[in-house]
Amino acid sequence: MPMPRRLNFLECRLAATPGLVQQGAQKTVHADVLRICPDCKGRRVRPGVAASSCGFCRGSGQVLRSRAGAQAASRVCPGCGGRGLQAQQWCRRCGGVGLARVASSMQIKVPPGVQDDTVLRIPLQGDLPEEGTQKGDIYVVVAVQQLDGMLRDGSDVHSTVSLAYPEAILGCSTEIGTVRGRRILTIPAGTQHKAVLSLPGEGVDYRGRHGTMYRGSHHVTILLQLPSSVAPVEKAILLELLAIERLQNSG
Ligand SMILES: [Zn+2]
Ligand SMILES: [Zn+2]
């Protein structure tokens, strides 16, 4: 019986932010793992089809090879590839093998202080090598990644924008880099220091359950910069501002 190429381990790259590195985290990882085929339930034939044996090997999956001067030896049947079933009856999803790759999500505990390229093991969540046997393990490679001032956290991306305080008070727009290219970020008037503005759908793609594709978000943390010294003209304006503030507060 031919089996799909079996993986000893699956590698999932998981991006880690500095916060995750410090505190550790529970993370969800996604992988396509070998399971009993959900279409044929491991019967290997198309649903609703009655199985009948391959005409070449009569269902054994093996045929005898005889060559002049050599002893007869059995080999995999060329008609059915060892499946023992007629090709037109094979389950479409698994090709008559009985096992198929199924999208699966699993939890992994990332320990505090995790380092780049650490390998974490999720026991017994990996490939099912054969029906009735034990599932293999999944190995997750943790990657601490930083790209052009952007931090990846799974499908979400984080970055920061520094603003002068008048920009935050009055509102403004600025161009930022995302994994999908340059985008205009609109900063509303009255934005506070360390406020987080999100751009949905500007993150990284990931495959959810049932193979559906999703896209993460880009989150921007606003950092306000206060000047350590000001020019005389700025000082004059600030003094005027202060006077207005005091007048308003006393009134
Ligand atoms: Zn199947
Ligand atoms: Zn055959």
From TrEMBL:
Keyword Zinc-finger set for record: yes
InterPro entries, per database record: DnaJ_C, HSP40/DnaJ_pept-bd, HSP_DnaJ_Cys-rich_dom, HSP_DnaJ_Cys-rich_dom_sf
UniProt-listed GO biological process terms: protein refolding
Keyword field contains Metal-binding: yes
Pfam assignment, any one: DnaJ_C
A molecular function GO annotation: zinc ion binding
Classification via SUPFAM superfamilies: DnaJ/Hsp40 cysteine-rich domain (SSF57938), HSP40/DnaJ peptide-binding domain (SSF49493)
A GO term from the CC aspect: chloroplast thylakoid membrane
PANTHER family according to UniProt: CHAPERONE DNAJ C-TERMINAL DOMAIN-CONTAINING PROTEIN, DNAJ HOMOLOG 1, MITOCHONDRIAL-RELATED
Official protein name in the record: CR-type domain-containing protein
